[in-house]
């Protein structure tokens, strides 16, 4: 007897990140595709995790996260954004930012609710919406600066709009919101009752002296928002999968209902280590300069190439046009670059629900200097 199964995500296959990383491995290519560093985290963090494990801190953490860690997150949030988040009722530690994004969507989106998504976007948003029975409503960001067309956003809002998902600094483009964007969003919330999910995982990677315009800096926005952050991005520990969500008590209450049945809690020794290491404020306060230097190095190394680099104001991603090299689609050029040039990249069209191809690819520059130099040497030969 054959088994018939109707997929809940019929349009979802293996992610492009896994595909390109596997292709890079097969062809011995330098992997500038998936967004992870090829350098290690601070050694003090490893020592702190080891100490926590050896002293027996290996059992379940409280589902919302260690209180000591939530207290440190509250202090950090107050320092950076002037927002006081209550550790007991408004902060939840999660198993990565992706879990936090999923839990937030699942907590508030009912079947038939509309969720406005700004495209291109991180690939977990839409599947999470669809699994909750929601309807994604897409608004394209302006090309090539990937700024928000607020008039178009407003035109997409209806009485069914439950949630607006925003992301700054923006993956994949590296665009960064300005205060004018927060002002425009605030005006919309004064006329429409939607909630906000703000993906701020690259909050410490904003370049050229600009501030990170967090939703938490505007009380009117913070009172209706889930704000998601990532220790994996901040501490070069993407494999640890530790993130957190800040939201008002009412939203957090619903968020935790989902979280407790999704992962229940996050690895205890990792939480102890991060709680202790958060006292090293200099790490996250200097992270923007650290990555800006890598951005500038990579740009200088590609200056003589035929790639046209688009502006990068934040994250650790650099977009580039390749029209002087090829007229292939961005998916085909990405595969060609991996197989023939020996550098793996990501096609930006995969971040659009309809595969819109603007012949742009994404490099990740969260790499050692020698990795960037070796990749640039290959790319400049094209």
How is this structure best described in words?
The protein is an alpha/beta fold and 382 residues long. It has two domains: 16-41 and 285-379, Aspartate Aminotransferase, domain 1 (Alpha-Beta Complex); 44-281, Type I PLP-dependent aspartate aminotransferase-like (Major domain) (Aspartate Aminotransferase, domain 2, 3-Layer(aba) Sandwich), CATH 3.40.640.10. 41% of the residues lie in helices and 15% in strands. The protein contains 16 helices and 13 strands. It has helices at residues 16-27, 43-54, 67-81, 87-90, 97-108, 125-131, 150-156, 179-191, 219-222, 231-234, 249-262, 268-277, 281-285, 287-301, 330-341, 369-379, and strands spanning 30-31, 91-94, 114-119, 135-140, 161-167, 195-199, 225-230, 243-246, 308-309, 317-321, 343-344, 346-347, 360-364. The protein has a seven-stranded mixed sheet, with helices on both faces. A four-stranded antiparallel sheet has the order 9-10-13-12. Strand 6, helix 9 and strand 7 (225-230) form a beta-alpha-beta unit. Helix 1 packs parallel to helix 15 and helix 2 (43-54) packs across helix 12. The protein is globular and about 55 Å long. The protein starts with 15 loop residues before the first helix and ends with a helix. The model has no long low-confidence stretch (mean pLDDT 97).
């Amino acid at each position: 007897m054959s088994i018939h199964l109707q997929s809940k995500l019929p349009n979802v296959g293996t992610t492009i990140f896994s595909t390109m990383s596997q292709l890079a491995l097969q062809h011995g290519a330098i992997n500038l595709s998936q967004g992870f560093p090829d350098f290690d985290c601070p050694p003090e963090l490893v020592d702190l995790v080891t100490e926590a494990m050896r002293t027996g801190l290996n059992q379940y953490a409280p589902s919302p996260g260690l209180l000591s860690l939530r207290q440190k997150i509250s202090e950090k949030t107050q320092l950076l954004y002037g927002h006081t988040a209550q550790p007991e009722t408004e902060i939840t530690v999660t198993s990565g930012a992706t879990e936090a994004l999923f839990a937030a969507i699942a907590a508030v989106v009912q079947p038939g609710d509309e969720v406005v998504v700004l495209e291109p976007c991180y690939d977990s948003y839409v599947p999470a919406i669809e699994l909750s029975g929601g309807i994604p409503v897409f608004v394209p960001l302006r090309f090539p600066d990937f700024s928000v067309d607020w008039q178009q956003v407003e035109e997409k809002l209806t009485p069914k709009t439950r949630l607006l998902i925003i992301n700054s600094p923006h993956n994949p483009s590296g665009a960064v919101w300005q205060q004018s964007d927060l002002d425009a969003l605030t005006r919309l919330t004064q006329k429409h009752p939607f909630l906000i999910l703000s993906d701020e995982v690259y909050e410490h990677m904003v370049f050229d002296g600009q501030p990170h315009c967090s939703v938490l800096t505007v009380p009117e926005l913070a009172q209706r928002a889930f704000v998601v952050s990532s220790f994996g991005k901040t501490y070069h520990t993407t494999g640890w999968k530790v993130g957190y969500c800040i939201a008002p008590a009412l939203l957090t209450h619903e968020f935790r209902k989902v979280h407790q049945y999704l992962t229940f809690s996050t690895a205890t020794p990792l939480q102890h280590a991060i709680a202790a290491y958060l006292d090293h404020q200099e790490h996250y306060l200097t992270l923007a300069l650290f990555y800006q230097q890598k951005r500038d190095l990579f740009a200088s190394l590609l200056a003589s190439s035929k790639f046209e680099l688009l502006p990068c104001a934040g994250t650790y991603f650099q977009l580039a046009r390749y029209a002087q090299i090829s007229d292939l689609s961005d998916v085909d050029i990405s595969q060609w670059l991996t197989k023939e040039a020996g550098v793996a990249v990501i096609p930006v069209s995969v971040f659009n629900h309809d595969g819109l191809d603007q012949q742009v690819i994404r490099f990740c520059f969260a790499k050692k200097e020698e990795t960037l130099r070796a990749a640039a040497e290959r790319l400049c030969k094209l």
